[in-house]
C-alpha cells in the first residue's frame, strides 16, 4: 500500500439519471400545495439538445395540465413529491413556507417521477407558459397565500391552448458573452403582433437615444399559443425575421422547440423510461439500487460505500 500516494483521496460517485425533464411550478400557503401545468424547458443551446447548456432556450406547455409525453398519473406523483418536500422544509425549520415552490423533475428508470432540483421562485422561461395559461386572477392567488386559504381557491387554467416560448440570443452566448454584447437591436413589434405572438425582453439595455443594445445574454423571448404545440412553434418561426441586429451580427434560436420532430423524440425517451420504471414498480424494486461485484454477485451499493469499497462481508 505504501507504493500508492492517492490511497486517501476522496472520490465522489454520482448516479447517472436520464430521462425527460420537466418543471412543476406550485403555489403554497404552508398547508396546501396547488400545482400548475407542467412545462418543459430546453437548456441546450442548439437543435435537438446539442451544444452547451444555457439559462433556457425556450419552453413548451399544454394544451392541458400535462405534457404530450407525461401522463396524468406521473403528474400526480410529481405533485406528491413537491408536497413532501414542502412538508419536510416546514418540519425542519419550524416555519411555514409561503409562495412559489418549483420542482425540476425527471422521469427516471429507477424511481419514475424524481426531483433533481428545487427552487423557491418561478422558472425562466417556464413562468411565461404557466402565466399565459392561468385564468384565475393572480392577485386572488397571492391573497389566498397570505391568508392561508389556498384550499378554498379554485385555481383554473386554460385547457384549450398549448404554449411555446422561444428565446433569441446573440451569437457568442453562452460561452463568449463579450462578443454577444454591444449590438444594436431592431424589433418590428407590429409584425410580431400581427402573427399572434408576444414579445418579452430579456438581457437588453435601453440607451438614452432610444437604442436597444444587447447585454451579452439571452436577448428576448417570443411566445405563441395554439390548440397544439407544432402550430404555435410554426407561428414563432414565421415571426423570427422581425428580430434583427443592426450591425449584421448574428442571432440564433432553437427552431425545433415545440416541433413534431422534437416531441416524437421526447415521447420515445419517455416510453422507454416508463417501461423500465413500471417494471421495477411491478416487481417491488422501484427506487432500489443494485451493484455487481465479480466473484461475489449482486450487492446493495450502499453496503459497498459503508465498507470502504472493499465489498460485502462473507458468511
What is the quaternary state of this protein? single chain
Low-confidence stretches: 305-315
Question: Would you tell me the structural class of the helices and strands?
Answer: alpha+beta
What gross morphology would you assign? globular
Q: Beta fraction of the residues?
A: 25-35%
CATH homologous superfamily caption of the domain at 21-160 and 254-271 = ATP-grasp fold, B domain
Describe the main β-sheet briefly.
6 strands, antiparallel
Number of DSSP E strands: 18
Radius of gyration, Cα only, in angstroms? Answer: 23 Å
Q: Which architecture of the domain at 21-160 and 254-271 would the CATH scheme give at its second level?
A: 2-Layer Sandwich
CATH fold description of the domain at 21-160 and 254-271:
D-amino Acid Aminotransferase, Chain A, domain 1
Order of helices and strands: EEEEEEHEEHHEHEHEEEEHEEHEEH
Q: Please bin the fraction of helical residues.
A: 25-40%
CATH class of the domain at 21-160 and 254-271: Alpha Beta
Distance between the termini: 26 Å
Topology:
Layout: E1 21-28, E2 33-35, E3 39-41, E4 44-46, E5 50-53, E6 58-61, H1 72-93, E7 99-108, E8 112-119, H2 126-133, H3 138-146, E9 162-170, H4 177-180, E10 181-187, H5 189-194, E11 197-201, E12 204-206, E13 212-215, E14 220-226, H6 229-239, E15 243-245, E16 251-252, H7 260-282, E17 291-293, E18 297-299, H8 301-306
Antiparallel strand pairs: 1-2, 1-7, 3-6, 4-5, 6-9, 7-8, 9-14, 9-16, 10-13, 10-15, 11-14, 12-13, 17-18
